[in-house]
Fold:
Amino acid sequence: MVKNLSPNVPEIVDDLVQLCFAVQTILLRIAAAHDLSLVQMRLFGILRDHEPEMIALARYLNLDKSSVSGLIDRAEQRGLVRRVRVPEDGRVFRVSITPLGRQITAEITTQVESEILGLVANLSDADRRQFIRIASEILRG
Amino acid sequence: MVKNLSPNVPEIVDDLVQLCFAVQTILLRIAAAHDLSLVQMRLFGILRDHEPEMIALARYLNLDKSSVSGLIDRAEQRGLVRRVRVPEDGRVFRVSITPLGRQITAEITTQVESEILGLVANLSDADRRQFIRIASEILRG
DNA sequence: TATTGTTATACTCTATAACTATA
DNA sequence: TATAGTTATAGAGTATAACAATA
Structure:
């Protein structure tokens, strides 16, 4: 019930939106289990491999810099990230993930992997290869 | 940049999450252009074909009933929905979309369709058929 | 002057708990 | 008592505008 975007919408649009919704639901549930929002989940996905400046984070997350201030404030209060001063420019911080933040990120990554794999568990190997090929086409031209 | 969930995560998981993110970005942008949240967009997707009770809406949207109260309050103030009394049970409302709400929903549907189609514009017809087949497999077994 | 980041403010969105009205 | 829905409250998340510090 409440399945289709519209009877007249091409099936591929409907499928993409529904697929997005299914993945979204999984991500939301896992994030919530760790008391994180989806944006925070994305934040930690970034921080695992980067130490961005606040303004770069705003760009990555498509948020206003003031929103990032609050986001980092709350994460810092929970001991998940740190603001690190940059010697070259007194205005700038880099945001760095803490060991605790890294541990939570690792747990989340494992869970996400497992649950998303569950979503495609019934596909044949051939279909899984096809899907990866077509998805790559969509995502990276 | 900031592309992969992790180097060790299977490619199909990464692709699904990224595909979800791409769709999400489109939906968010279109919703925002109409001053709506993603949840409101889902709400109107439901109301186009249904007149649910508040409690059913809470179930569909996976929200607490108090959250739905606020959601419907704000939509009602903007003239997009109406609360309709049910004669059989004095406690119950049905939520009904107004002509204005229906018009906005139609605009959004058209835009979403067009932008999502743009995402798969470069696929061959064969790949598009394959994708629909595999997506159906994932979504509906 | 321009840039980086924070703060003040206001609003949406969400859940929990307490409440009202109806069954 | 039980159910449908609202209200009070608190907190996250967001943007805009004004601000401080640094360049």
About this structure: The CA atoms of residues 60 and 94 of chain A lie 14 Å apart. Chain A touches chain B through 46 residues (CB under 8 Å). Residues 11-33 of chain A form the longest helix (23 residues). The helical segments of chain A are 11-33, 38-47, 54-61, 65-77, 99-119, 125-140.
